[in-house]
Automatic annotation (TrEMBL):
Gene3D superfamilies: Phosphatidylinositol 3-kinase Catalytic Subunit, Chain A, domain 1 (3.10.20.90). Signal peptide: none annotated. It comes from the Eukaryota. Transmembrane segments: none annotated. This is Ubiquitin-like domain-containing protein. It holds the Pfam family ubiquitin. Residues 1-58 form the Ubiquitin-like domain. InterPro entries: Ubiquitin-like_dom, Ubiquitin-like_domsf, Ubiquitin_dom, Ubiquitin_ubiquitin-like. The lineage of its organism: Eukaryota, Metazoa, Spiralia, Lophotrochozoa, Annelida. PROSITE patterns: UBIQUITIN_2 (PS50053).
Amino acid sequence: ATDTIKLVKEKLHEKDGSVVNLMTLIFAGRGLEDSKTIEHYGVKHGNTIHVVYRLPGGN
């Protein structure tokens, strides 16, 4: 629960090669900031965090 959002993104990168800088994590309709922790957002075991990817070159 003390993992930062940035660390979660890095773990996803290790698992599937996703580009960290193109990821946005969303929980309860809010974009999660890299410097905050999972605990800060009240994420509990079993909750769903959505991953949205920006397309390179897209706006």
